[in-house]
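Dear support,

I submitted the protein below through the web form. The confirmation email said the job was done, but the results page showed an empty box. After a refresh the structure appeared. I'm attaching both so you can tell me whether what I see now is the final result or a partial one.
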Amino acid sequence: MIQLVPPSVTLNPDQRPNLTFQLLTVQDMALSPLEEDQEIAENMQNRIFYEEDTLDMILSLLRNYKTQLFSYLDTCTELAHIHLRILERYSKQNTYIFIKAKRQKSRRKKTAQIDGEEATTINESDEELEAENRRNVRERAFDFIRYESKFLTNACVDTFLKLLGYYKDLEYVQIKRALTFLHRVFVKREQETVLFRIDVLDLLNRMVQGKDALTYSHPAFTEVDQFAKHYIKQLVRKLQKTPALYVELLFSKTSRSSFFIQHGYDQENTVKKVRQPAELDVISTLSYSEQVGVAVSVLLNENKDDSVDWLKKVVARAVDERQSWESEQTARRMEEVTLEGSQKAQAESPKADSIVVIPDTEGRKTLMSQDPKMMLLLRILGLRTSINGMLPASSCIL
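What the results page shows now:
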């Protein structure tokens, strides 16, 4: 059990962190009857919520709380509470929200071979790393429900439970803050099994009926009592339906076990579909050879000459194979015409088998299935992708 030490520090409104104060100011301006204030609030929210680093930082502060001072606990829970409330309202008012996401590149070592001598190791400079990170900045659509689900975890729940554990010394707004988060998890998002724990049951019981319970005159007593009654009702119902929960009450549950207890079956692993690259094209007025030349020159400019040479060899072998087959069929038809007549020979003329082109390396597999410039050259040459999923997605058919 965690030993709770009574808080020695309580933050005044003037001592709130800068970001919390900004969010509260934005909230007041957004609810202002003045249109000018609303426009300023909209612009400020765009700037605050546009940075993915800011969103991740608030989440990290909450779930990484361990044994820091009470002032830290009070601050990070207040920031997360206000942040989720304002962001949820903002996402409901705006159908499409985009945030700036970064694919951070870590410092790595380059290996270079100079004139056949031993390889030398070169560290990337900070300037190169920063330039690469700037190029990797991209925008993506923001989904509030998906982001909120990151808060519905044991680590974040534990932080709010630690705050609520000081209930004897807390003010109404602090108890209300913790209770609102538990309501978000248990009722609003119906993640009941996350809170089906013996320590949560014990805490709610002590707050309502224990020796140090809240008094009936306490401003938060009614809300705590209502939540506790709803919690007990749902817990009893779930225990009757799933007796295994009696054991699970003793432990924190993983997302997989929570899903099983909640729904009665294992969660299926969804396979993320690979987004198809944009399809390129060349001017239709160009001749066939000119179109091939344009596609090849683009690949050569990107230093993909090895893949172009490999594809040229593959096509050349395919042409030789098809010509040999056609010569064989021509000779066979001439023989059949001589023996049995042209009509029967024409009726039984077989069709040529398709020639499958399968890349020989992982790099070429990726190139043929995801590089729009290579896919343009394949399309011009008449190569088509495999049919009905019978062959690998990166293979082509002549």
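Response: this is the final, complete result; the empty box was a page-load delay. The longest strand covers residues 98-102.
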